[in-house]
Fold this protein.
Amino acid sequence: MFADKILVNFSQIFSPIDKGRPLRGKEMAEAVILENGYIAIKDGKILAIGSGEPEDQLKGDSTVIIDYSGKLASPGLIDCHTHLVYGGSREGEFAKKLNGVSYLDILKEGGGILSTVKATRSASFETLYHKTNRLLDKMLIHGVTTVEAKSGYGLNWETEKRQLEVTKTLTKDHPIDLISTFMAAHAIPEQYKNNPDEFIQLIIDDMLPMVKAENLAEFCDVFCETGVFTADQSRKLLTAAKEMGFKLRIHADEIDSIGGVDVAADLHALSAEHLMAATDEGIRKMSEAHVIGNVLPGTTFSLMADTYAPVKKMLEAGMAITLSTDSNPGSCPTANLQFIMQLGCFNMKLTPVQVFNAVTINAAYSVARGQSIGSFDQGKQADIAIFDAPNVDYPLYFFATNLVTDVYKNGEHVVKNEVRH
Ligand code: NIG
Ligand code: FE
């Protein structure tokens, strides 16, 4: 079969090994690295990859050959945890943070997530659509081709729905594929301050069935944290969501360890996220239940904290790890997954291969897309990030600079020489 396009002369291709499940523990150090490689694309899918000159049988009269001498290719990066759709911004809280006021104290005073809730409630669909579209463009030029997007800045049906509809519309309109997560349980709304159980019940009885009926989200998530939702409330919500057919993820052990990890293990959530305060016992449970550990070092960095998720212990316990931005207006305002990958190396001492596996094959499984993205296996989507880098180590070492020059999404050349097309 002839290729439509063959991208040739890559100095390296990073090619994760797809075992039909996420890579766990020691497996995360494994990958195929092809020198002088090529990638052949047919109908938006991977047809073949290899080293050296592409075989003649791939080349027809209309096959386009594009030269990428000196560059590195990896599967399109997958950002598997973002709070993507929101109104306003929170640079006003930055000075408070610099003066040592904590994230949870800002939230207690009605700031933090609650101030973004106010801004999101008053933003129209169009405003949210255009703002999110711009953010996605920024992510795309950094090599990201798939993004998980959580709601949770509405805390009432009207606004949660608007956020989910923006996500649904943009997944059609924007080259980036979006995976939608319903997260109304992101903070306790003002009127339920003294009765969070009632808010959980409202989500279960009213909102979840509507999300399902209108097919607005695939996953359900909850912020299990001191001052937000308890482990019991989280368990109740996620149990109901699971019964309705939602896949599960959970914000657990972000600041305090209050049992979110047990909920993740008992309900077999696909992923437990943040995990800065994860304990040895929690790690053992997640490992046994095959819960993916999604670590977000940009949040530690942005919260000016010094606790990074104990990722080495997770790997020693045989867990699968993903890395993501947590992109949101409060605890991690960024569109640059490459910087987060670098923090994975600089501050968590992961290796470049572990980091690339985390944001490709493992991230694909964490959003239930392992069959179609995350590696260069034949028939998967031709989602490709191309770096101005000679090898897989370089983009982790040369930090805080966008090294992605070109991006292909479903075989389409959507970023060309650093410009979005
Ligand atoms: O993942 N943990 C809860 N939510 C976000 C923060 C969102 C915000 O501060 O607006 C997080 O850190
Ligand atoms: Fe988050």
User: Anything to note?
Assistant: The domain at 5-75+375-420 is CATH 2.30.40.10 (Urease, subunit C; domain 1). Residues 83, 112-113, 116, 223, 251, 254, 299, 326, 328-331 surround N-(iminomethyl)-L-glutamic acid (ligand 1) (CB under 6 Å).
